[in-house]
Amino acid sequence: MKPELAAVEALVFDTFGTVVDWRSSVIAEGQSWGNAKGLQIDWAKFADRWRLGYAPAMNKVRKGEIPWTKLDDLHRMILDDLLREFKIEGLTEEEKVSWSHVWRRLKPWPDSVAGLTRLKKKFTIAPLSNGNIALMASLAKFGGLPWDAILGSELVRHYKPDREVYVSAYELLDLKPQEVMMCAAHAGDLRAASGNGLRTGFIHRPNEFGLPGALGAAGVADHANSGDFDIVSESIIDLAQQMGA
What we know:
With about 240 residues, the chain is an alpha/beta fold. Helix content is about 45%, strand content about 10%. The chain folds into two domains: about 5-20 and about 105-240, Rossmann fold (3-Layer(aba) Sandwich), CATH 3.40.50.1000; about 20-105, Putative phosphatase, domain 2 (DNA polymerase, domain 1, Orthogonal Bundle). The chain is built from eleven helices and six strands. The protein is globular, with a radius of gyration of 18 Å. The N and C termini lie close together (about 10 Å).
C-alpha cells in the first residue's frame, strides 16, 4: 500500500455502476416481467431512459425546484413518465411500486462481495450513495453486500456531488477527511470527493453501459490512468489487494 494511504481507516462506495450492475439487472427483470405481461419492449432502451432521468431529477432537488425527494420516489416519478412514453397501460399501483423497486434488486458485479469482504477485515466499509436508506438496505440484503454502515444522501438531504454528502462521510464516521477513501467507477464523483479532502479509489467498470462499442450501448464508461487518483483498480478485489487487505 502507498505510504500516503496508511492513514485510511474507512472506504465509502458509490453503488450504482460501481458495486452493482444496474443496467443488465434492470434489463433482465424487464424482460422477465415483460414476457409475463406480453409486452414487446426494448428493455435496454427502457433501462437506459430510466437511468438518463436520474441526473435531471436530482438537479430539480438540488436547484430547489422540488422539495427534498428520496431516490426511490424520483425513480417512481421517472417510471410514470416512461410508462406513458412506452405506452404501457393497465398496471395496478402494486405493480408500479414493485417495478419501481427494481432498483432495490440489482445484482452485484461478480467481484463486489468478495472484494468488500476482504476490505471489511481491515477497514470500515459503507456505501456513500444517492440511494436512500431503505433502498440501500434492500440492495445489501438482496446482493449480500457486507456493509458496516449505510451512509449517503438521505442523511444530509443533498445529492452528490454536493459537498455535504462527502463531508458527512468523515463526520459521521468520526474521522478526518484523509482517513476516508471514496471509491467509485465515476471520475466526477471522485474529483468531487478529492475536492473535499477525501482519498480516492477508481474502480474500472467497462461494461456499465453495455459492452464497449456494442450497438445500442448507452454510454462510455469512465477510464482512469495510473496517477489520476490515489488508487486505480480493475475490480474491488484489485482495490483490496492494493490497499493491503
